[in-house]
Amino acid sequence: MSQEETTSRILEAAGQVFADRGFKAATIRDICSKADVNLASVNYHFGDKQRLYIATIKHAHQLPSSQFPIPQWHAETSPETKLADFIQVTLSRMIPKGKAPWQAKLMMREMTQPTLAVQELIKEYIRPHFDLLLSILRQLVAKQTSEQQLTKLGFSIIGQCLFYRFNQPVLHMLVDEEMVDQHFSIEQLAQHITHFSLLAIRHFTEEPNDPSSILSTPITEQYSIGTESNTNLPEN
Amino acid sequence: MSQEETTSRILEAAGQVFADRGFKAATIRDICSKADVNLASVNYHFGDKQRLYIATIKHAHQLPSSQFPIPQWHAETSPETKLADFIQVTLSRMIPKGKAPWQAKLMMREMTQPTLAVQELIKEYIRPHFDLLLSILRQLVAKQTSEQQLTKLGFSIIGQCLFYRFNQPVLHMLVDEEMVDQHFSIEQLAQHITHFSLLAIRHFTEEPNDPSSILSTPITEQYSIGTESNTNLPEN
Amino acid sequence: MSQEETTSRILEAAGQVFADRGFKAATIRDICSKADVNLASVNYHFGDKQRLYIATIKHAHQLPSSQFPIPQWHAETSPETKLADFIQVTLSRMIPKGKAPWQAKLMMREMTQPTLAVQELIKEYIRPHFDLLLSILRQLVAKQTSEQQLTKLGFSIIGQCLFYRFNQPVLHMLVDEEMVDQHFSIEQLAQHITHFSLLAIRHFTEEPNDPSSILSTPITEQYSIGTESNTNLPEN
Amino acid sequence: MSQEETTSRILEAAGQVFADRGFKAATIRDICSKADVNLASVNYHFGDKQRLYIATIKHAHQLPSSQFPIPQWHAETSPETKLADFIQVTLSRMIPKGKAPWQAKLMMREMTQPTLAVQELIKEYIRPHFDLLLSILRQLVAKQTSEQQLTKLGFSIIGQCLFYRFNQPVLHMLVDEEMVDQHFSIEQLAQHITHFSLLAIRHFTEEPNDPSSILSTPITEQYSIGTESNTNLPEN
DNA sequence: AATGAATGAGCCTTCATTCAT
DNA sequence: GATGAATGAAGGCTCATTCAT
């Protein structure tokens, strides 16, 4: 077996096992047995479990991105269409068709419980994707919209998409199976999110005078988002 | 030390460790050491690691719910105010503040990688919460809005809230620390989401004639959401 | 519950558990649970597991001895009859009727894998029993029979009896179930052993000139019986 | 160190420890320490403690059988000589001499408290050995001797031999050390048992008219040998 | 270069024993 | 006097890693 073939088989097997079980619960034995290679191969080719994991992450986000590329837009493509495309592509990449590809699972795992590998993930994959969204939004909102408002708009859109990725198990317990089949296809979800978001964006510059005044109870505590980014070595 | 105190200290410590590391990577040694109890206490009081985990999950979603209750609404409280309250409470429960941040983390872990405990979680905690949201939305939308449209609206709102829970690590890498401090407090996020969502909802009944037509490329494949809910024993 | 009742219930339960599982594999939890007493009772009443074991052994050999007493012999009772009685009683005490009484099991365990308790067992129970056998034999053999010849005769008889006690599992695998039922009752075995032994004893003084000469191969090595009496604390 | 050497050293050490302490009380740590191999070796080579035990049992009854073979008999070898040889070999195999005494101990343990391994033991080792004895006896007794009479004769001989195996600890407490040294060598014991048994066998066909009549007390109860062969997994 | 064998650290669990009430 | 709670010492086993070929 060639060296290249061995490493690629390990990476493929590792991707599935890491995605299914997480870093800690995945065992090198499982991976090597699934890849049908020697137990010592991982350490030989990748050094240790940790570096195999990072290599797996790097290897991971190639497939979905290339499988569902952003369409080539013309000069005259409207920002609404671009947003619709963006949402469609984002959902397609996230929601597995048929069986879940391990790449998606693994990336979601990284985002919720980040390890060292998350930095690379963000830099190479998420950051550009999010910047693309911001550039589309900028064409849709009023000139004077602030950067942080734009960011929040972006998060509102991404948040709606991610919901269907993260919460699939919960989703299936909240909604009838039948309704999922009929009304929650990727296409329909993309339409809904696009529709919902465009409605909000169109009128977004009409800022409320004092939005907090509509709360029924005064807010007594001010919570700041704690920095809990324990971006350490993977252990989960 | 009383039995109750011991178990509660174990639960508190277990919550933090399970939330930080996941089931598999968490060790009873860590938990007992953090709780300052004997290593054998867990087995004495809970039987084994698994049952401690389930007890911890159950224990977890009692605190935030009671800590941030839904305010008592009057008869004349407007649905807009109710929605604002709902979003405020939801965010408060989800985004950890200094004191006891692990409950939220643990529940998110359960939702993304559900174990057997998730069913109880949904029944006792999530389902009622989501039903409350639906009842508020029903007062805001047109009469003829279908059940599945309402559900998607609910998901769009919940999705925006959850985003800030799931993706906190990523968030902190996409946004400047300074901007987070100034513009991403729970209050401000609640305002944004409320504002964004109300704008969309107000105009929601104006259905687009053919929303998919604005896509730049025809959709060729129809993706169904695969059921990948392997609700097994925890191992990650 | 009175103190006496508690200890006696513990002893009864301990006897069964120790007999079934041996010293090490028996757990105080099992014993206390079977006796339906508190977990700490054993240590409270007996000090520790070891002393409970010794107390159990002492408690054990009261029952079978009294249940099958040596019959009262008259002055004119023949030594042959005495031997027949002796064998009958020995077998009766050893071989359980119906379910095995734990006393027998426990004593056999002690004899094969002796602990500290074995000394008491020998002194109070085995030594007198064996001395009785020797006294019977002395009436059956020639005057000039040496002490060690007599001892070996005794062992030959005891050995035949013990065989059916120790090797019951093996016995049942070597012999048809049907044959066991028909021909291996205690009565029949006693008859056989008595018959066999009396035949040998009657002619025993006719010593062979050189018994070792009938061996087909010369004995090259002389093995001495190693003293492996590790009469230590019970640990098995 | 070669694989074979490691496993054989583990087996040797395991044999001694299991023989001394029994399955439950024996610890893998002790075995590995005695064998001077790593603690994890047992699990690597044998899977777990249980499978090591079974492997040890199998390994145990190969050595003595090959160490003390039945001599090659000529056509004209008398059955008396054969019986003498048989008893000599049986005793040699059973009574440990200095070098490797644990095999016998372990096998006796298996016979008294049988585990799953005992079946194989009987089939491969005990059954053929016993059949050999029966074939010898058949040449010594009258033609009309029944199968079950023959079996009991065999048991009487085996029983005498086994006595010195099972009851060595007790033996040493019943007999002076000095007498053991002088009169209880394997050779002497073999002579005695051979002599004793031949005497009985020669006259065996002279059945007693009613052997039970010599009992001083009528037998009131008929005891059947209970089947208490709990051939379970080892736990003692 | 590649692998079967071996290793040591650590984890969950059990259990006899002790403590505090 | 008696007991529920707690403890610490192992024990079996797993697993990433290293060694020797």
Please outline the helices and strands.
The structure is a homotetramer of 236-residue chains.
Chain A: H1 3-25, H2 28-35, H3 41-46, H4 49-60, H5 63-67, H6 79-94, H7 102-112, H8 117-140, H9 147-166, H10 168-174, H11 177-183, H12 186-202
Chain B binds a DNA duplex (21 and 21 nucleotides) through α3.
Report on this structure:
Four copies of one chain form a homotetramer. By secondary structure, chain A is mainly alpha-helical. In chain A, 66% of the residues lie in helices and 0% in strands. Chain A has helices at residues 3-25, 28-35, 41-46, 49-60, 63-67, 79-94, 102-112, 117-140, 147-166, 168-174, 177-183, 186-202. Chain A starts with a helix and ends in a 34-residue tail after the last helix. Residues 219-232 of chain A have low confidence and may be disordered. At the C-D interface, helix 1, helix 6, helix 7, helix 8 and helix 9 of C face helix 1, helix 6, helix 7, helix 8 and helix 9 of D. Chain B binds a DNA duplex (21 and 21 nucleotides) through helix 3.
